[in-house]
Amino acid sequence: MPSKWSMVAQTLTRPYPVSMPMVLLVLIVPFYIFIGEFMPGRTLHVPELPLDRLVPLQPIWALVYGSLYLFLIVLPVFVVRQQEQIRRTVLAYLMVWSAAYLCFLIYPTIAPRPAKVIGEGFSVWGLRFLYSADPPYNCFPSLHVAHSFVSVLTCYRVHRGVGIGAALCASLVGISTLFTKQHYILDVIAGMFLACVAYFIFLRNYSRDELPEIDRHLAPVLAACILGILGVGVACFWAVYELSREMV
Q1: From CA 114, how far away is CA 126, in angstroms rounded?
Q2: Tens digits of per-residue pLDDT, 87-108?
Q3: What angle do CA 233, 159, 218 make, to 5 degrees?
């Protein structure tokens, strides 16, 4: 174990390149909120299928939505360590964000949220927090799903097991967007399709042979550490909820 943790330290202290595409990606992320601010007053579309009406609102899925999406944001930062793969991954993210923004502007949509969230408890509190943090617009395609699956596909290039586990997490994120009434089924499908297009353009041709063995060997360890930290984060979130109840 000491040697393994020294290898983890060696991997994480390796210089992480900061490129212009990376800076650009960080700069365009806030436009997700800005685009939503311009939606009131526009004609908003509802890409609903009959099957969407059969999916009930389940507040417990808000915890899955928040925690696993955060996991899939952080995972490539620790698992993807080679400069060329980092460059390709950032370009893939840039593509899905830019394409999604263009769709949001051309085809503005509104989420199928209820007018009011009924009930009490930690999961209901979490769903209300989610609704307050994320505007009910920018549905098609699901950017959460597209970003999650780009993370899955680039991590799969490093370690198949980690990629498969991440794919399960991304699938749960996609399902959670339906049960929290954040998205429609077509949004999820479009998000997955967008991620696959980005993968075929930027990541498919990146050879696994270019990866050092240490990166493949440590990927499951790093993924497990991130999950553990997120578990602590969820526990802290629950503690905030309990404290807010006592203060009422």
Answers
A1: 15
A2: 999 999 999 999 999 999 999 9
A3: 60
Return the closest-CA partner of residue 145 out of 96, 105, 111, 180: 96
d(CA 170, CA 62): 14
Helices (H), the chain: 2-12, 20-28, 31-37, 61-79, 83-106, 122-133, 143-158, 160-179, 185-198, 213-247
Tokens representing residue 184 in the block: 């429609």
Q: Contact 140/184 with Cβ under 8 angstroms? A: yes
Q: Is 200 helix (H, G, I), strand (E, B) or coil?
A: helix
CA-closest candidate to residue 181, choices 32, 82, 48 = 48
pTM: 0.91
